[in-house]
Design goal:
By secondary structure, this protein is of the alpha/beta class. The protein is built from 8 helices and 13 strands.
């Protein structure tokens, strides 16, 4: 199977090499789990290896994303300048304009740009723009379908319900996605908090289902596949 390496040491080992090309994968996690870091690392790995990428942000502005990348010593700015990467800021406050851009402009832009990798941070904010559940479901299904038709591989971050790290806030993302990767914070008996990751599902791919600890280092996320998570 043709897979796309995420660039996250250990996570690709859990996936058996990477994410199947063309998949739409949800990266679930609460505040502070490093969802944006994982998403940026996925994008940067493609850029370093000659794949064009698009980062769509609904939370931070473009300059903030660039500075986050710089903090990990990733030269995202030069890729934006030479047009191998594009950073797109969508405004969740303007639901109508954003919905129009996502439906009519985004698919064509992805195709014309030639993006092999796409990240959306976060899909939860996009869903929150539509109070009606039926409309949220319809728009999310349509967006994922549009992205799949471009042939690009997509990682989109999503907030989780406090009581269930395996379930998104709206309960939709994990059903629409081809894969789900869960980031969580496990509180240990000594009071320390251990970040941990689990590949909950990945269609058409045999993967490791164990929960493994990870660290956010100076050069990005690293999953420790040789270690176990202990409470």
């Amino acid at each position: 199977m043709d897979v796309v390496p995420t660039g996250v040491d250990g996570l690709d080992e859990m996936l058996g090499g990477g994410i199947p090309r063309g998949h739409v994968v949800a990266l679930l996690g609460s505040f502070g789990t490093g969802k944006t870091t994982f998403a940026l690392q996925f994008l940067m790995h493609g850029l370093i290896n000659g794949e064009k990428g698009i980062f769509i942000t609904l939370e931070e502005d473009v300059e903030s994303i660039l500075k986050t990348a710089e903090a990990y010593h990733w030269d995202l700015r030069s890729h934006v300048e030479d047009k191998t990467a594009a950073l797109i800021k969508l405004e969740p406050a303007d639901a109508k304009a954003t919905a129009t851009r996502v439906k009519s402009e985004l698919p064509q832009f992805i195709k014309s740009f030639g993006a092999a990798r796409i990240t959306i941070d976060s899909i939860s904010l996009l869903n929150m723009m539509f109070p009606d559940e039926v409309e949220r479901r319809t728009r999310l299904f349509a967006l994922c379908d549009q992205i799949r038709k471009t042939g690009a591989t997509c990682v989109m971050t999503a907030e989780v319900k406090d009581e269930n790290p395996r379930s998104s806030r709206d309960g939709l993302v994990e059903y629409v996605s081809d894969g789900v990767i869960s980031l969580r914070l496990v509180e240990r008996a000594n009071g320390e908090v251990q970040p941990a990751v689990q590949v909950v599902k990945m269609r058409r791919l045999k993967h490791d289902r164990h929960i493994k600890p990870y660290s956010l280092t100076e050069v990005g996320a690293v999953v420790h596949t040789e270690a176990e998570v202990f409470a």
